[in-house]
Backbone:
């Protein structure tokens, strides 16, 4: 019964968010995986076999009382001066509820200003920022329900917008079978255009379904995820159209397997390989990123990602690298520590 109620809550939230959707502007705060591990595995992890404070910033179901008091700081070096910092802190639990607070800040870089006549004015900066509060509760020994609320804003010179929203998560973990699965609705909310031409309306949301599998006699785990399930066809317009020679008018049939291409644009896959002790290596692949950013007839590593984690002293470090295009990649760096371990005994 409890599981049914949890599922109904998640479905109801999706239906509410669907009303009048996609009027607000999309923000990279919700699109980029702030955690280096998630990024290296192909995208935000929504099903995991273990607790993870870094990952709990993206899914509060990964909170655990055994790691309370831990602080994580993650940084993304994106493109063209764009960078993002995320901070997450696990609070003391309240009864059966695990709690966390955190924030994400994105610097959009510096822009040149011009007046109506085209004359140069002062340069200006811009950015997105948000704070969030997340909580999760174990329904039973397998299922966990998570909810995360957020409030944020965007500023770009005279352009200002505000956000308010909530995210919902349902997670299951069968430890004896080394299987985890998760269902998530992220980024659901509303945007208010406060100044300038910023639109007012629902924020774009993301419905995600994930499966993770570990193996008894193998030192690796497989992470499989389908995202943006609220929309089936993610391909740009004209992707599956036939081409017509402008001179001969000869029609060349599009050879793309449409169903397979549409399906794979939702899919990311990754693997985590244990390297002994506290070290782990990650590899990931995003089909959509590779397909949409591929240069014609040029072999490149876009769509691929990799990373690793290791510990030294009282700190745990993570680093990940995502290839978007042959001309560039993003770097994700994270650190975790517990201030209580530095106090004198």
Residues:
């Amino acid at each position: 019964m409890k599981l049914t109620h949890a599922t109904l809550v998640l479905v109801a939230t999706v239906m509410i968010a669907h009303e009048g959707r996609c009027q607000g502007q999309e923000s990279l705060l919700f699109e980029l995986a702030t955690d280096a591990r998630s990024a290296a595995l192909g995208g935000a992890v929504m099903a995991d076999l273990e607790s993870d404070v870094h990952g709990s910033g993206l899914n509060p179901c990964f909170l655990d009382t055994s790691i309370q008091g831990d602080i994580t700081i993650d940084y993304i070096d994106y493109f063209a001066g764009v960078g993002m910092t995320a901070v997450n802190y696990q609070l003391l639990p309240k009864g059966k509820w695990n709690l966390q607070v955190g924030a994400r800040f994105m610097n959009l870089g510096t822009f040149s200003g011009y007046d109506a006549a085209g004359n140069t004015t002062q340069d200006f900066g811009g950015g997105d920022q948000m704070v969030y509060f997340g909580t999760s509760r174990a329904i039973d020994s397998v299922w966990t329900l998570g909810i995360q609320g957020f409030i944020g804003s965007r500023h770009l010179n005279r352009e200002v917008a505000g956000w308010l929203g909530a995210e919902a998560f349902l997670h299951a973990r069968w430890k004896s079978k080394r299987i985890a699965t998760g269902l998530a609705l992220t980024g659901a909310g509303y945007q208010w255009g406060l100044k300038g031409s910023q639109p007012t309306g629902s924020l774009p949301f993301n419905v995600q379904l994930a499966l993770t599998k570990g193996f008894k006699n193998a030192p690796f785990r497989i992470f499989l995820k389908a995202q943006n399930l609220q929309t089936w066809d993610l391909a740009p317009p004209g992707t599956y159209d036939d081409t017509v020679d402008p001179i001969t008018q000869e029609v060349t049939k599009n050879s793309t397997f449409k169903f397979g291409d549409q399906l794979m644009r939702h899919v990311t896959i990754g693997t985590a390989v244990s390297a002994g002790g506290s070290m782990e290596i990650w590899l990931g692949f995003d089909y959509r990123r590779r397909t949409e950013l591929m240069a014609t007839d040029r072999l490149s590593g876009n769509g691929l990602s990799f990373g690793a984690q290791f510990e030294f002293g009282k700190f745990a470090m993570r680093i990940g690298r995502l290839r978007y295009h042959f001309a560039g990649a993003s770097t994700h760096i994270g650190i975790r520590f517990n201030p209580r371990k530095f106090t004198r005994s």
The radius of gyration is 22 Å. The first strand starts at residue 71 and ends at 77.
